[in-house]
């Protein structure tokens, strides 16, 4: 199943394939999967920028002693300088925001040509060609 993002009226953008070994998942799990994919993509982009900036400025490299010593007491720094637990909390907040958007009809999930109606609705992963996440943006002033 291919995952696609679309913001009302804009061109649809392919995100990539759904990464699951399950034969069917709920719409809630599908949204969770999409949030995690976006988080990983943002993390990879951020790490690429950090690596480039460190290299250009002569800053500490990825495995350097200086970087470890400056790690604010945490052995496993996260994307924004927090621990892995902080990252999990941030992902959970993003997931809750996405669920709220679905429930308030600001986010629609289209499974091929059918709109998902409920978070607990089961999605046949192999039988569904594409899942489109359509985000509506409210107009200002009206």
Determine the structural class based on helices, strands and strand pairing. alpha+beta
Please tally the helical runs, counting DSSP H or I stretches of 4 or more residues: 3
The ordered string of helix (H) and strand (E) elements is: EEEHHHEEEE
- Binned, the helix content reads 25-40%
Mean pLDDT metric: 78
Q: Main β-sheet, in a few words? A: 5 strands, mixed
Q: How many strand segments?
A: 7
Q: Judging from the principal axes of the Cα atoms, what is the shape?
A: globular
Strand order of the largest sheet: 2-1-7-4-5
Low-confidence region ranges: 52-57, 59-66, 72-82
Span of the ends, CA to CA: 37 Å
Q: What is the gyration radius calculated from CA atoms?
A: 19 Å
Content of β-strand? 15-25%
Task: Supply database-style keywords.
globular, 142 residues, 21% strand, alpha+beta, five-stranded mixed β-sheet
Explain what this protein looks like in three dimensions.
With 142 residues, this protein is an alpha+beta fold. Helices cover 39% and strands 21% of the residues. It has 3 helices and 7 strands; from the N terminus they run βββαααββββ. Strands 2-1-7-4-5 form a 5-stranded mixed β-sheet, covered by helices on one side. The protein has a two-stranded antiparallel ribbon with strand order 3-6. Helix 1 (27-57) crosses helix 3. Mean pLDDT is 78; it is low at 52-57, 59-66 and 72-82.
């Amino acid at each position: 199943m291919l995952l696609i993002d679309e913001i009302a009226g804009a061109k649809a953008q392919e995100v990539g394939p759904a990464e699951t070994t399950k034969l069917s998942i709920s719409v809630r799990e599908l949204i969770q999967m999409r949030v995690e994919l976006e988080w990983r993509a943002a993390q990879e982009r951020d790490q690429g920028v950090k690596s480039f900036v460190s290299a250009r400025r002569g800053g500490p490299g990825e495995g350097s002693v200086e970087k470890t010593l400056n790690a604010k007491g945490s052995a496993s720094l996260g994307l924004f300088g927090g621990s892995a637990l902080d990252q999990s909390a941030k992902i959970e907040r993003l997931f809750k925001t996405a669920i709220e958007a679905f429930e308030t009809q600001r986010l629609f999930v289209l499974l091929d040509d059918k709109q998902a109606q409920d978070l607990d609705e089961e999605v046949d992963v192999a039988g569904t060609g594409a899942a489109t996440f359509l985000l509506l943006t409210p107009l200002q002033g009206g």
